[in-house]
C-alpha cells in the first residue's frame, strides 16, 4: 500500500502524499519542539519539512523507512534554524515590579510550553533499542529546557539516540556524521543533561489522586497569596522561570525572595483556569478589570512535580493562551 501511495504522490497526487505523511505529523512536530524549544518554531519547521519531503519524494529510495527519512529532513531543518543568527527571544512586557537578582545558572529564554491536546492521539511507536527516556519525561519542561543548553549537533544526537532510540550508525547516517563523532557528541550531551537535571524522584502519575492533591494545595496557596504554604510544597532545589524574561530563581531561599517581591502584583490574579502542558498541570491566569469586571488572561503557569513536591514553576506570556484553548477574556 505504501509503495502505491509513493508512486501516486510522485505523480502529483497530494491526497496520496497526505496519506503517507499524516501518520507521522504529530510525532515530527514534537521532535521539532524538543529540538527548538518553541511551539511556534516547531509548527513552522514541520511545514517546511513536509514541503521539502513533497519536493524531494523522487529522491526517496526506500533504503530506510519513510518515517526515518522524514526524521532526517526534520532534524536537519531544525539544525538550520538553530544555526541561523536570526533566532532571538520574543520581546516581553517587563514586570511591573523590580524583581530580586536572578540566580543566573543557565537561563533558557527561548522556551514555550507544549499543549497536551497536541499529544493526544499520537501513534504508539515502539521505541528503538537505544532509548533512555520514557515518553512522559522526554516531553517535560525540565527535559526540554535542559536540551536547549546543548549545542545543535549534540542536541540532535541526544534526541535521536536517547529519545527515539536510533543506533549510533543510523544516527550518523541521519546527520551526515561519523560514528565516532556521534559517540563523542552523545557523551558530552549526556554529561550536560546530567548536570542540568540531577536525578530526583519521579512525578506522581498524571491525573492520579497524588497529583490532584498536590495541585489542589498549590492552587489554594497560590490564590490565597500564602508564600509560606507555597514554599512548604516545593523541593529544596525548586526552579522558578519566566521566559522570555531573563529572570530565573533556584532554591527555596531565592524563590522566597522572588515571591515576596512580587506579592503586590500577584494580588491582581483573580482566577486560574486549568489546562495541561508538557504532560504537567498548568493554568491560565486571569486578572479582573476593576471597571468593566471582565477577566483578562495574563499568562500561562506550568508546574513540574517530583515525588511529593513541586520542583519547577514556569510562567509564560499571555500570547500563548490561544494554543491552550484559553480565551483572552472571561465574564
From TrEMBL:
In the record, the note on similarity to other proteins reads: Belongs to the sigma-70 factor family. ECF subfamily.
Answer yes or no on keyword Transcription: yes
According to its UniProt entry, the protein's GO biological process terms are:
DNA-templated transcription initiation
Q: Which CDD domains does the protein's record reference?
A: Sigma70_r4
Quote the protein name from its UniProt record. RNA polymerase sigma-70 factor (ECF subfamily)
Location of the SnoaL-like domain: 215-307
* Sequence ranges assigned to domain RNA polymerase sigma-70 region in this UniProt record: 20-87
User: Which InterPro entries does this UniProt record tie to the protein?
Assistant: NTF2-like_dom_sf, RNA_pol_sigma-70-like, RNA_pol_sigma-70_dom, RNA_pol_sigma-G_actinobac, RNA_pol_sigma70_r2, RNA_pol_sigma70_r4_t2, RNA_pol_sigma_r2, RNA_pol_sigma_r3/r4-like
UniProt keyword Secreted present: no
Q: Where is this region: Disordered?
A: 192-211
User: Which Pfam families has this protein been placed in?
Assistant: Sigma70_r2 (PF04542), Sigma70_r4_2 (PF08281), SnoaL_2 (PF12680)
- Which residues fall in a compositionally biased region of kind Pro residues? 198-207
State the Gene Ontology terms under molecular function. Answer: DNA binding; sigma factor activity
* UniProt keyword terms in alphabetical order: Sigma factor, Transcription, Transcription regulation
Name the species this protein comes from: Kribbella caucasensis
Amino acid at each position: 500500500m505504501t509503495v502505491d501511495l509513493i508512486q501516486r504522490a510522485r505523480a502529483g497526487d497530494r491526497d496520496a502524499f497526505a496519506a503517507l505523511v499524516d501518520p507521522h505529523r504529530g510525532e515530527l512536530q514534537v521532535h521539532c519542539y524538543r529540538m527548538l524549544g518553541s511551539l511556534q518554531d516547531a509548527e513552522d519547521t514541520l511545514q517546511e519539512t513536509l514541503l521539502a519531503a513533497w519536493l524531494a519524494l523522487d529522491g526517496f529510495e526506500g533504503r530506510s523507512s519513510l518515517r526515518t527519512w522524514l526524521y532526517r529532513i526534520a532534524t536537519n531543518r531544525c539544525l538550520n534554524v538553530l544555526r541561523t543568527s536570526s533566532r532571538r527571544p520574543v520581546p516581553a512586557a517587563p514586570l511591573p515590579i523590580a524583581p530580586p537578582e536572578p540566580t543566573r545558572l543557565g537561563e533558557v529564554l527561548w522556551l514555550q510550553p507544549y499543549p497536551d491536546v497536541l499529544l493526544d492521539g499520537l501513534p504508539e511507536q515502539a521505541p528503538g533499542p537505544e532509548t533512555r527516556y520514557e515518553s512522559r519525561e522526554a516531553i517535560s519542561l525540565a527535559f526540554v529546557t535542559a536540551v536547549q543548553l546543548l549545542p545543535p549537533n549534540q542536541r540532535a544526537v541526544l534526541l535521536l539516540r536517547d529519545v527515539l532510540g536510533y543506533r549510533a550508525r543510523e544516527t550518523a547516517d541521519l546527520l551526515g556524521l561519523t560514528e565516532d563523532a556521534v559517540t563523542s557528541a552523545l557523551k558530552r550531551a549526556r554529561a550536560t543533561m546530567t548536570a542540568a537535571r540531577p536525578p530526583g524522584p519521579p512525578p506522581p502519575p498524571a491525573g492520579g489522586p497524588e497529583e490532584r492533591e498536590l495541585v489542589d494545595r498549590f492552587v489554594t496557596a497560590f490564590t490565597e497569596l500564602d508564600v509560606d504554604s507555597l514554599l512548604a510544597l516545593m523541593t529544596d532545589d525548586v526552579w522558578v522561570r519566566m521566559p522570555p524574561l531573563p529572570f530565573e530563581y533556584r532554591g527555596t531561599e531565592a524563590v522566597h525572595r522572588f515571591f515576596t517581591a512580587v506579592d503586590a502584583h500577584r494580588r491582581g490574579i483573580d482566577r486560574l483556569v486549568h489546562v495541561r502542558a508538557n504532560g504537567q498541570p498548568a493554568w491560565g491566569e486571569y486578572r479582573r478589570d476593576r471597571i468593566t469586571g471582565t477577566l483578562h488572561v495574563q499568562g500561562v503557569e506550568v508546574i513540574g512535580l517530583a515525588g511529593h513536591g513541586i520542583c519547577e514553576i514556569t510562567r509564560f506570556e499571555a500570547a500563548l493562551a490561544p494554543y491552550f484553548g484559553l480565551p483572552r477574556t472571561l465574564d
